[in-house]
Amino acid sequence: MRRWPALVVLLLCAGCTSQPAPPPPAPSPAAPDPGRSGPVADMLYPEHGNPGLDVLHHTLRLDWKPDQKLLSGTAVARIRPVVPATEISLDFTGLTVDTVTVDGRPATGTVRNGKLTVPATLVPDQPVTLAVGYHGVPEQISRPSRRGDAKEGVGLRPAANGGAWTMQEPWGAMTWYPANELISDKALYDITVTVPPGWTAVTNDSAAPMPAYLVTLAIDHYTPVRDTGPHGLPLTYWVVPGADDKLLPVLRKSPELLTWLESLLGPYPFETAGAVVNGSVSAMETQQLVSMGRPLSWSVLEQKRYEDTLLHEYAHQWFGDAVTPTTWADLWLNEGFAQYLEYKYQQKKRGYDDATLEQVLRSYDARLRRELGPPGKPSPADFAGSNVYQCGAAMLKELNDALGDDRFWSLMRAWVAGHRYTNQDRAAFIAFVTAHTGEDHSKLINAWLDSPTTPE
Question: Does pLDDT of 6 surpass 80?
Fold first, then answer.
């Protein structure tokens, strides 16, 4: 995820239904059932999500009326109970429930304090099907952050022109369908949205599992622009003619950006790629179809920032989307990696050396540890603070220096290839580094993740 303005830019030398991307062929997942997860309670935000449930599949059949800004539809969730329970409890808020069934039988549903609760007898590993009909005008909800972009909130929100768009990290899916808002619960999605003529609904159905925060929906007068990435990868940029014309030259750099990322990280981990432009002031690594906001200005500097941010979100397809943290406490596994790749791209484009990068990273690191603490111990009140980006990137540079480029990038490629479509944590990463390199770098990694001051 990124925001406007960018965290840091180094210029040291100076009538239709929805139209999602065509469904890709099924991937080769790491597990036999790609919708099966091992949900765990999130240590930063235990009030969100239900670790007793593993959502395997979401089917969303939605209708959007721009003149009323009204969302209605049916959400069907195939759920695997993890523990015995007497109710289904999912995150849901702001909309009116019309009908509820469990395995086809009528049931009751109560929405209170951000939860939809449905009485049901749940037996571990015996899946049930929950269907919920609902309607209402969605509203974004607050995000626990002091970042400049936090004031726009998260979740699905109507746009002034009658469209709608969502950004939902660390949560927000609950504003438009009943969701298990755990980063550790990845599910498959099948989404259809009906809109009036002249409108287009864009979403990111994927053959690979996704946690709720990586799902996107945007409704506007979109036009698709098709492109081709490395080794024939299908690319689509969803833009509004006129409003987004100035952004297209940067979006069309996607083949170059993805080719460069593949040179370091190995094959792109999904079957399609691209971007959808929305009304946010930020950007998101939504799976296979990154969400890019519209900058308030378009200076030469802003164009460079937009390109850097696009690269950052594409880098997340490897780090964050293909391999996802188990809890939000390890957000550095997302943002530190994407930020470090952004810096390496800036080095390539602008020509500054490693000594300069070291100086800049240590300067940012020292300040951010004082202000926000170490990246491995984030505050729940400061979600996605700059420390998990910059201090995480600083740790990776130190590991890169210790291993050398060949061994470091081999490690990065192997990490993704060996853990694709799974959730991982710090312990798993350290164990993998040790196994892959034959060396113990745990002291280096832990020091950079936990120290209150910049390690030597």
Answer: no
Rounded-to-integer distance, Cα 389 and Cα 448, Å: 12
Q: Residue 434 corresponds to which amino acid?
A: T
d(CA 378, CA 444) in angstroms, rounded, equals 19
Q: Tell me the two tokens of residue 122.
A: 């749940």
Please tell me whether the overall predicted TM-score, pTM, comes out greater than 0.85 for this model.
yes
**Model confidence at 90, in pLDDT bands (50, 70, 90)?**
very high
Q: Count Cα neighbours of 52 within 13 Å in the Cβ-side half-sphere.
A: 13
Query: Could you give the CA distance from residue 226 to residue 204 in angstroms, rounded to a whole number?
Result: 15
Burial class (CB in 10 A: 0-12, 13-18, 19+), 25: exposed
Largest CA distance in the chain: 67
pLDDT of residue 148: 86
Q: What are the distances in angstroms from CA 454 to CA 329, 362, 363, 421, 445? A: 19, 7, 9, 33, 12
The predicted-structure confidence for 120-176, as pLDDT tens digits, reads as follows: 999 999 999 999 999 999 999 999 999 988 899 999 999 999 999 999 999 999 999
Mean pLDDT of the chain: 93
Report the range of poorest mean pLDDT among 144-148, 291-295, 365-369, 444-448: 144-148
Q: What is the pLDDT of residues 202-242, one digit of tens each?
A: 999 899 999 999 999 999 999 999 999 999 999 999 999 99
